[in-house]
Amino acid sequence: MTWLQIVPTINASLNATSGVLVLCGFRAIRRRRVHAHAALMLAACATTLAFFLSYVCYHAQVGSVRFRGVGWMRGAYFAILWSHTALAIALVPLIVKTLRLALRHKFEAHRRLARVTFPVWLYVSVTGVVVYWMLYHLQRGWA
After folding, report:
1. Could you tell me if 91 and 121 are in contact, meaning their C-beta atoms sit under 8 angstroms apart?
2. How many angstroms separate the CA atoms of 107 and 10, rounded?
3. Other C-beta atoms within 10 Å of 128: how many?
4. What is the pLDDT of residues 10-43, one digit of tens each?
5. Range with the lowest mean pLDDT among 16-30, 59-73, 79-93?
6. CA angle 87–88–92, rounded 5-degree value
């Protein structure tokens, strides 16, 4: 197995890890564990950045990967992929702004924006794993 065959699994793992960190960060702040929340959210940012860099490097090497599923599965895949991609693009400025507000100690504005950023980030993390699973595992049985 070459490194190019392993990268999609690494990317999915980074997406999953980011989602778990975001959930844990949410739980920490709900319990008023501010320092744990900050550490978890910074780790989520780092994991998301690592995913993005790995994703770009991988696709610069292999190009786009074609989904070979048919029927309703093809429609479901592209619906998930489209929403995932659109929200992933929107997520970048949301994360940057939310993080910037926290670092500037503008916590009320941070809290308001985080209420939008959190579900989008979680959705993008989960659907990233779903897209990986459909593209690299599910289609083998449905193509």
Report:
1. yes
2. 34
3. 25
4. 999 999 999 999 999 999 999 999 999 999 999 9
5. 59-73
6. 110
- Please state, in angstroms and as integers, the Cα–Cα distance from residue 76 to each residue in 42, 62, 83, 127, following that order: 33, 24, 11, 12
pLDDT band at 115 (very low <50, low <70, confident <90, very high): very high
- Dihedral class, residue 36 (left if φ above 0, else alpha if ψ from -120 to 50, else beta): alpha
> Is 0.90 topped by the overall pTM?
yes
117/109 Cα distance (integer angstroms): 12
Nearest alpha carbon to residue 8 among 57, 68, 81, 76: 57
Give the start-to-end residue ranges of the domains of the chain. Answer: 3-142
Phi, then psi, of 19 in degrees rounded to 5: -60, -45
